[in-house]
Amino acid sequence: MKEKIIKKAGELFLKLGFKSITMDDIAGEMCISKKTIYKYFCNKELLVEESTNFMHIEIHETINTILAENRNPIEENFRIREMFSEMFQSSADTSPVYQLKKHYPEIYDKVIFREITECSRWFRTNIIRGIENGLYRKEIDVEAYVQFYYTLIFNINENTSSERESQRLELQALEYHTRAMSTAEGIIELEKQLQNTNTK
């Protein structure tokens, strides 16, 4: 039951935001009593923390599945961005990440520390593979580009309240990041991915 509560809470938080969803809402969605939820979680903050941990695991399992498909590094980045867009289709006025930062800053700080560590590893691997495949320039400073990109992405999520605007800026950041690194062959692949994105 505890895992079911965590999963349902995570779905509702992503869809409607961390602020607006109450323990009553979660109980109603699951057709259980609020007392049952409090049996496992003494307050909403604990449930928020547990659900963000669960979402972290789910997101990274999905990313690992995409990485295992062995796409070229540019296509891989666009597919991961698309996955995030699908997952964070929020009905709330403000993005879930922005709400988490505003209303649960300590939990947000833990999430961001963990995400930066994980994402830096993926960004680094992606850049190295792109250089090996001739899509990214050989002379780029890999560590600097890893830092540039996660700084861009996490600043967008921290400071943009609208989920729609956040996703628009993330796509522009991905294009900016990719163009800065790409060889002529990489630019061709980038334009192809942008075209595919615009036709969806």
List the helices and strands and how they pair.
Blueprint: H1 2-16, H2 23-30, H3 34-40, H4 44-68, H5 73-87, H6 96-103, H7 105-132, H8 142-159, H9 163-181, H10 184-198
Helix pairs in contact: 1-4, 4-5, 5-7, 5-9, 6-7, 7-8, 8-9, 9-10
Structural features, described:
- The protein is mainly alpha-helical.
- The protein has one domain (48-198): Tetracycline Repressor, domain 2 (Orthogonal Bundle), CATH 1.10.357.
- The protein contains ten helices and no strands.
- The chain has helices at 2-16, 23-30, 34-40, 44-68, 73-87, 96-103, 105-132, 142-159, 163-181, 184-198.
- The termini are far apart.
Offer a concise description of the structure:
This protein is mostly helical. The protein is built from ten helices and no strands. The protein has a single domain (48-198), classed as Tetracycline Repressor, domain 2, CATH 1.10.357.
What's the CATH first level?
A: Mainly Alpha
What is the fold named in CATH at topology level?
Tetracycline Repressor, domain 2
**Computed structural class:** mainly alpha
Mean pLDDT: 89
| Rg (C-alpha, Å) | 19 Å
SSE sequence, one letter per element: HHHHHHHHHH
How many runs of DSSP E, i.e. beta strands? Answer: 0
> What about the largest sheet?
none
Continuous helix count: 10
CATH architectural designation: Orthogonal Bundle
* N-to-C span: 38 Å
Number of structural domains: 1
Low-confidence stretches: none
How much helix is in the residues? over 70%
State the fourth-level CATH superfamily.
Tetracycline Repressor, domain 2
Shape: elongated
Percent strand: under 5%
